[in-house]
Write a structure and sequence with these properties.
The complex is a heterodimer of chains A (about 350) and B (about 150). Chain A has four helices and 22 strands. Chain A is mainly β and about 350 residues long. In chain B, β6 and β7 form a beta hairpin.
Chain lengths: ~350, ~150
């Protein structure tokens, strides 16, 4: 009979045998070591996450200041993110009283009693549209998208949707205007300064939907307006005749054909417009015609081949960038008239959600 | 002392002695062959042996992206071989293990995830792909992924 000691020795010997047998078998056929340099998925103004984008400006109480920025996705999957804002005073303490910061893809402007505001009530695409209202003919309400270094030929095309609920003049619709300049990087303020100075560098075209073939004056329906297609928008120019029904298409301005489209002995263009730089594009209610008691919406804009959806991005609310998408947006800094004078630091973070 | 016990000892010695004499009289074997066989491993990764680690640097990428590395498995044996793919570890540039699922590794065969174990027929070569996916919020860095192709043992 085996004693305990003998049993232990036997078990140990068996274990050693197993060990010898295992060592003779391969644990793996091959090993692969892959090294990958991974960069961040989303870039703000092309910066790395640890290199802040800094801008400084002087504001007076009551000012509204817009600053352009862009986000770019390098990922090949949709990515959700959100804006986060922190405001501190010169003592470094949190102090956002009197400062409102918002983020959007267009600048809203209004003149007179015209009102341009972000709306969730009637939208065609995304969460927001721009609601435009005018009380009297002289009012203006618009969404404005600044450019600067992009030529009209590079843009090539503009389309948008409108939805009108009521207007004293059933024919009016939000329309589109494009400010153009011979020089790149011109702001709208500089464009107007050059215009009033009589500069030969200033150009402008606009298209009103009611002059489009097949136009319908129905209310309460989304309507599509395009610079191309079967019924393209007709564009009048600053230098051309006042004859919208026979005005050229956007493409005819770009390629110079508008130079040979003449009405009342005046050509619509003195040159091709394709190489002119786009200062900005506006979608507007008001000016010309009768705009009393107008209420309508603009949404689902396309500029060039890229969707330029008119959207507001509320803080702490996620939004999505598609693979490779670039999102141009504007930070709106709004300073109350009764704000305490100080040097404020406003920090915007774009955070993954 | 017991006489029988005294007698048993010489008898036993005598029996052993007789047995030895008989054994010496019988041939143990007619011949002996010593065979030496060099055995290589059955399955080769990228034509390399198990102890030849394959090191590769993939193209730079971005968070939210997946990179792919193509490799081959060749079964040089006469029997089919079952293999499994194992993730050894993932580390950042400081050598710190990445365990928060910001990096994920999958193995693909003709674009489809491999169902393990993978059977490789005798004398067959299969192409497989290592897909390394990075979370969109991953900290920019240089990441190292080590994987092994192992014999499948049920």
């Amino acid at each position: 009979m085996l004693t305990k000691k003998k049993t232990a020795i036997l078990v140990l010997a068996l274990a050693m045998c197993i060990g010898v047998a295992s060592a003779a078998l391969l644990q793996y056929y091959g090993k692969i070591i892959s090294t990958v340099d991974v960069k961040q998925a989303i870039y703000l103004d092309g910066h790395l996450y640890n290199i802040p984008v800094e801008e400084s400006f002087t504001a007076t109480p009551g000012d509204i200041i817009w600053k352009p920025h862009y986000l770019e996705s390098k990922a090949n999957v949709p990515i959700e993110m959100m804006f986060d804002t922190k405001i501190t005073n010169s003592s470094g303490l949190p102090d956002g009283d009197g400062i409102i910061v918002t983020y959007s893809t267009a600048i809203l402007q209004q003149i007179g009693t015209g009102v341009a505001q972000w709306s969730t009530g009637t939208t065609r695409k995304g969460a927001y549209s721009v609601k435009l209202t005018t009380v009297t003919t002289d009012d203006i309400a618009r969404a404005y998208v600044p450019f600067g270094a992009t030529t009209l030929a590079e843009i090539g095309r503009v389309s948008f949707w409108t939805y009108v609920t009521h207007a004293d003049n059933q024919w009016v619709r939000p329309w589109v205007g494009i400010y153009l300049h011979k020089n790149p990087g011109v702001t709208l303020e500089q464009w107007f300064a050059d215009y009033y100075a009589g500069s030969p560098n200033v150009f402008y075209i606009q298209a009103e939907p009611c002059y489009t073939d097949g136009y319908s004056s129905d209310f309460d329906v989304w309507q599509y307006w395009d610079s191309e297609g079967q019924h393209p928008l007709k564009w009048e120019s600053l230098e051309g005749p006042d004859y919208p029904y026979g005005a050229p298409t956007l493409q005819q301005y770009i390629n110079g054909d508008a130079m040979s489209i003449i009405y009342d002995e005046t050509a619509f263009a003195s040159r091709e417009y394709g190489t002119l730089y786009v200062v900005g594009i506006k979608f507007q209610a008001g000016y010309g015609g009768t705009w009393a008691n107008f209420q309508g919406y603009v949404d689902d804009v396309t500029i060039g081949n890229e969707p330029w959806d008119l959207e507001l991005f509320p803080e702490d609310t996620s939004f999505t960038l598609q693979p490779g998408e670039r999102l141009d947006f504007y930070i709106k800094y709004e300073f109350a008239t009764n704000i305490t004078p100080d040097v404020y630091t406003i920090t915007t973070e774009v955070q993954p959600t | 002392m017991d006489k029988r016990r005294v007698l048993k000892v010489p008898v036993a010695v005598l029996i052993v002695a007789l047995a030895s004499i008989i054994a010496y009289a019988v041939i143990q074997y007619y011949g002996q062959i010593t065979t030496t066989v060099p055995v290589e491993q059955a399955v080769w990764v990228d034509g390399k042996r198990f102890n030849e680690t394959i090191t590769e640097t993939l193209a730079p990428t971005y968070g939210g992206c997946t990179v792919y590395a193509n490799h081959t498995l060749e079964n040089r044996g006469d029997a089919e071989a079952k293999v499994k793919f194992a993730l050894v570890n993932i580390t950042d540039s400081k050598g710190t293990p990445v365990t928060d699922n910001t990096v994920s590794v999958t193995w693909l065969l003709e674009g489809n995830p491999i169902i393990q174990p993978l059977t490789i027929p005798a004398h067959a070569t299969v192409n497989f792909t290592i897909a390394i996916s990075f979370h969109y919020a991953i900290m920019p860095d240089t990441y190292t992924v080590i994987v092994q192709v192992e014999p499948y043992v049920p």
